[in-house]
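Quick log. Single chain, no ligands specified.
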Amino acid sequence: MDCGVYCTALSYDTKLIYDLFRGYNETEIIDDVIHVAYHQEAFQADLFFFPYGTFVAWNLPKKALDGIVVDIKPFETDPIEVIEHESYIYQYGGVASFDDEMITLSDETVNIKLAFSHGLANSAKLSAFEGIIQKTFEDNKHLPHRLAKHGKIPLSRYQIRRKMGQLFLDRTSINLHLGELDIPEFFWENSDYEPLYEKMSCELDLHPRTLALNQKLGVLHDLFEMLGQELSDQHSSRLEWAIILLIVLEVLILLLHDVIKVI
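-> predicted structure:
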């Protein structure tokens, strides 16, 4: 059976998503996660919507998944440019485990699926952030070379401020999401599943990936700080030249008026 994980936005309005599904599906709120028991004639699926813009679908066919992605678009905040999608295969067995792309569930309860979903959703969210930061690197890696080679860069102070602002938003989002990577509230009351979540976190490298993202953001921030300082120096230099030109002009006017008597 298939398990699909989608990260489509920075966050969801989970209240509106709850209202969307509760009319024709069994829907509940587990801590801050929306669980939908999605029933059709041909299949029965479980959906988990996380407030940080990610949802996990168990046993939902691809066509139905695509429909869900479209249905929840009005409830997304800051949709991401490229939707992050991860797929896994799962089965039912004696002991719950996670091995590469194979998930083994010990039973068919909602809690065991939610325990796995927390780890899967966090991984997809980090993958989305990794894609965003990698694109930022690719878009801006030429700037230090331009500065070293030509002594100037093809960006205005306004453009650099906007880039630095976006970097700050990205870094804030990652650091806020880091709180979700500790131990979600679900495991406080379901401590039996906590070792499973910790094992998944280790297998999916959640903490090292988060630290690596913050390091990349730090490097990018330093880059734009340097560029911003360079533009500030250039602006100061232009002001100094403007003052010099004004002084020269004033001296010329005095010479023409008092010495040469032309004006």
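Helices lie at 14-22, 62-71, 110-140, 143-150, 157-181, 186-189, 194-203, 206-259.
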